[in-house]
Amino acid sequence: MTSGGGEPASFLARIAGLRVPLGFVVGVVTIASARPSSLSLMLGLPIALVGELIRVWAAGHLEKGREVTTSGPYRWVRHPLYVGSAVLGVGFATATGSPIIAVVVAAYFGLTLTSAIKAEEAELQDRFGGTYDAYRNGELGEPGRRFSLARALRNREHKAAAGVVLVGVLLWLRVISESGG
Prior knowledge:
Largest sheet: none
Structural class: mainly alpha
Number of strands: 0
Helix content: over 70%
Order of helices and strands: HHHHHHHH
Shape: globular
Number of domains: 1
Number of helices: 8
Radius of gyration: 18 Å
Distance between the termini: 54 Å
């Protein structure tokens, strides 16, 4: 991979940049074609909730663009927001009760999150150099930062949480309408 504006890095950045608008498209198609059952919701929504909790935890430690964050989940995983997103995707795919939707969601996350991770790592390497290398090698210590809900809100995680609630409600309404009551 080339950093500093090279062709592979810019291609990955374009794909990574499409993950949000593409996510809305995948989400709308998923909800429109979902045929959830009470069982699929009972299995999938708790998984999605765990994914969002991982995201909130990560967002409550992240000082985006200012540093290499090493506290909270960043102590164990380099990209906990993406891990949380992937868990969310598994939860919602399970909640829909559709193997086809599960494949679409897996393909979406496989392509966009892999691209986002590679693009982000190139950016972090360019911005923080040796500090990021030390973090990747597990050589940076815990800075002692505690979780902050205010930080999570500054990182706009409340928008993702609202989206999780909205999708959960829409899938639940789908179950009710399909069951006739």
